[in-house]
Amino acid sequence: MSRKQGKHRHGFLKALAIILIIAIGGFFFLMTHTQIIVGTIQKLSQNTVNTKNLFTPLGDPMEGVKENGQYIITEIEYTDVYPNSFLDITYPNADTAEQRPTLIYFHGGGFFGGSKSVGDPLAGSDATALLDDVCAEGFNLVNIDYVL
After folding, report:
1. What is the DSSP string of 77-122?
2. Element (H or E) spanning 86, and its range?
3. What is the largest CA-CA distance in the chain?
């Protein structure tokens, strides 16, 4: 190997080492500052799923019997300290005093997207469609939104 080739190889290895150090440093920085990653995912998915943190409900509050006979109360605020702090309660029928088992449901979405009414934006199916079926089996259902 000539001297010239040795210098080029040494320079190449030096550049490769610097790139590797920067890449490893960047990886550890992102892994310890995950809000950067979550914020980027939220920005990319803004027009397809709910990624907002609001102190007002996403929909209008309602209370009454649904077409399937289940009784629902929506947009109940459970705290005013954090955004998206609203829940819905669905009962199998209008008798809200009857004691029944209760299922508490938190939608998926990795804490960066989704809502109680739409469900997990990453799921391949509409998981919230099954909630009415669970309620029809005699369960009260509490469906909760949370801070994204």
Report:
1. E--SSSTT-EEEEEESSS-TTS---EEEEE--STTTS-BTTTB-TT
2. strand 86-91
3. 90
Q: Which amino acid is at 108?
A: G
In whole angstroms, give the CA distance from residue 43 to residue 76.
28
User: Which tokens go with 15?
Assistant: 């550049």
- By three-state DSSP, how is residue 132 classified? helix
Helix (H, G, I), strand (E, B) or coil at 115: strand
Residue pair 89/73 in contact by the 8 Å Cβ criterion? yes
Q: How many CB atoms lie within 10 A of CB 143?
A: 23
pLDDT in tens, 38-87: 677 667 666 666 778 889 998 899 999 999 999 999 999 999 999 999 99
